[in-house]
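User: I've been trying to design a sequence by hand for this structure and keep getting stuck. Would you show me what you'd pick, starting by listing the structure so we're on the same page?

Assistant: Good idea, let's start from the same input. This is the structure you sent:
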């Protein structure tokens, strides 16, 4: 891989701590979600992963859309990251909900979403490791 950029962040005290990027632009309080027995008074790793994956996937969709000369600039991607027990540990599952502009027909949209899934670095990192469902709306 020819590295273009490296993000650096440090988390302290796990899910009940703080995460800060090396440039200070990201500085978030972390908390265990209420659904998992916490107080929910901060964000959590699953929310950050969902936001990062959604943003990255939207960029990948824009890239393949431009290459195909299809305007998907008004598309929205919602990432849903689930965590649950898996054997003795925990596992993740992802659903990406892609809302395309009305001007993009379903077949073209589905093709672009599948192409974006091949380009997106988050998709490439998760492929074969966790289930990722693509929903085109």
């Amino acid at each position: 891989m020819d590295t273009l950029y490296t993000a650096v962040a440090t988390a302290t005290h796990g899910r009940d701590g703080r995460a800060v990027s090396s440039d200070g632009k990201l500085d978030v309080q972390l908390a265990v979600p209420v659904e998992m027995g916490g107080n929910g008074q901060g964000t959590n790793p699953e929310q950050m992963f969902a936001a990062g994956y959604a943003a990255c996937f939207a960029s990948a969709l824009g890239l393949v859309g431009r290459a195909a000369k299809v305007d998907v600039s008004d598309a929205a991607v919602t990432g849903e990251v689930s965590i649950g027990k898996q054997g003795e540990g925990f596992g993740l599952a992802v659903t990406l909900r892609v809302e395309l502009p009305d001007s993009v027909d379903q077949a073209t949209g589905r093709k672009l979403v599948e192409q974006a899934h091949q380009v997106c670095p988050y998709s490439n990192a998760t492929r074969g490791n966790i289930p990722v469902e693509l929903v085109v709306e």
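That's my pick for every position. To get oriented when you compare it with your attempt: The first strand starts at residue 9 and ends at 12. The helical segments are 45-67, 106-119, 121-126.
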